[in-house]
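Entry:
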Amino acid sequence: MNKTRTLTYVWPKSIRLFHWINVITISLLIVIGLIIFNGKTLGVTVDAKIMLKTIHVTIGYIFAINLIIRLVMGFIGSSNDMWSQTLPFMKGHKKELTKFRRSPKQVYKGHNPIGKLMVLALLIAMTIQMATGLILAETDIYYPPLGDVWTPPPNIVSTV
């Protein structure tokens, strides 16, 4: 029995771009964050640490903007990038999950039922990462959007 397969792009270019921006920004945030965290061991100077924090925050803003755009696209995008197709909230997800457990080699256009659960967990984790990053950018180096809310008194010098 000969089966022929055809190449089908499930995700539009905008979603693929979103994924690659996430890969790049999260990887850079991890690397720079580890360098900042281990600054004393690595011999990073105070000035270099401030510069690294500034770069880290800038990359974090790119990550945050990318995530916000994707969250909005889930409501107004095309069919396969809509949240109703990507997240496990769709009616019948329990049946789909049961069917997947019985026949895990079944082919899906898009995410399978377990993949949809993973997407939900990943979006929650990235949203928490974005929120905590914005809060730390505010309190650590006084960057917007909340940096104007919390600023040190003028007579206190911030040290790293």
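The chain has six helices and no strands.
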